[in-house]
Amino acid sequence: MKKTTLIIIGLVWIFALIILIISLTNLYPNNIFKEYRLIIGIAFITITGFLKLIYNSAINKGNKV
Predict the structure, then answer these.
(1) How many CB atoms lie within 10 A of CB 51?
(2) Is residue 9 a contact partner of residue 55, using CB atoms and an 8 Å limit?
(3) How deeply is 49 buried, as exposed, middle or buried, from its count of CB atoms within 10 A (0-12, 13-18, 19+)?
(4) Residue 35, by phi and psi: left (phi above 0), alpha (psi -120 to 50) or beta?
(5) How far is Cα 60 from Cα 64, in angstroms, rounded to an integer?
């Protein structure tokens, strides 16, 4: 259960990071995220904060034996 949670957290964070990179760079000419750069940046910070809380609770549950 702990490994599965950590893998899911990692995948969600990598997906959010990819969207952030796409929105902040001009890699694609017709970028759908271009107009929402500020919102995507704030969402990335928020997602990272929530994932950190989930990660810490998963790690702490594993250490309590």
Answers:
(1) 16
(2) yes
(3) exposed
(4) alpha
(5) 6
pLDDT at 65: 52
pLDDT tens digits in sequence order for the chain, 65 residues long:
678 888 999 999 999 999 999 888 888 888 888 888 999 999 999 999 999 998 888 888 766 65
The whole model's pTM is what?
Answer: 0.80
DSSP assignments along 6-58, one per residue: HHHHHHHHHHHHHHHHHHHS-SSTT-TTGGGHHHHHHHHHHHHHHHHHHHHHH
The single residue listed with the structure tokens 């929105």 is 23
Euclidean distance between CA atoms 42 and 20, whole angstroms: 10
